[in-house]
Amino acid sequence: MIEGKAVRLRALRAEDAEHQLRWRNDPEVIRLAAAGDPRFGPTTVEALADRFGRILRLDPRESAVLTVEELAGGRPIGMVDYRDLDPYEGVAEVGIFIGEREFWDHGYGSEALGLLVDHLFGAFPLHRLELDTWSGNTRAARAFTRLGFQEEGCRRDAVLLAGTRYDRLLFGLLRREWEARRRRLAADGVPHATRAHDVPGD
Ligand SMILES: CC(C)(COP(=O)(O)OP(=O)(O)OC[C@H]1O[C@@H](n2cnc3c(N)ncnc32)[C@H](O)[C@@H]1OP(=O)(O)O)[C@@H](O)C(=O)NCCC(=O)NCCS
After folding, report:
1. I need a surface site. Which of 27, 64, 175, 178 has the fewest CB within 10 A?
2. Closest residue CA from atom 31 of ligand 1
3. Which CATH number fits domain 2-193: 3.40.50.1110, 2.120.10.30, 3.30.70.141, 3.40.630.30?
């Protein structure tokens, strides 16, 4: 379990499927998280059950999905994940979504992603983390930038949503940038929010 000030990240459990089903059938979550990509949702209990069985058995040395819980009420509000962790290149891809809309815009997403970033750079010999979003998702882009991710490029017109083309924005964070940001926060007296323990299996 990895605990911050307002959220914790914990290992995925079978019962999290019901939350995922709700989130993946919310059109606004699908629009923002995946630019309406039908592979993300809407989805059915049966399709999700298949996928969930695989996710629960992921090897955390390569990839994992973690549930984001708000600390105050213990309620699952979203997920973070990492995938394609390559120990040779020292690169991994991360992702986030907060599925409970009333928890948007209160700092939960930024904190959850920050905890994942701290955990990954702390636990693995990674050199860089990558993530992406689409040009219509300005809230996500701001949250990533706030955590120190730099916009490194874009795949022009790579995203199609309701007949309109958008760019896919590519973000990256290097270990030295993460370390420098931690030093700046420590110098400013901001306590390090992460209390990291072994996540896999909780
Ligand atoms: C994108 C997403 C992860 C961002 O998480 P979030 O919790 O909504 O965003 P945050 O609250 O961390 O940041 C948003 C705003 O809240 C403000 N905020 C940050 N910490 C805060 C706090 N402790 N209290 C109050 N407000 C805060 C920030 O200033 C920020 O405002 P700004 O962007 O205008 O600067 C989340 O909205 C989400 O999952 N949305 C749907 C799916 C999605 O878009 N996923 C990303 C796919 S790439």
Report:
1. 27
2. 105
3. 3.40.630.30
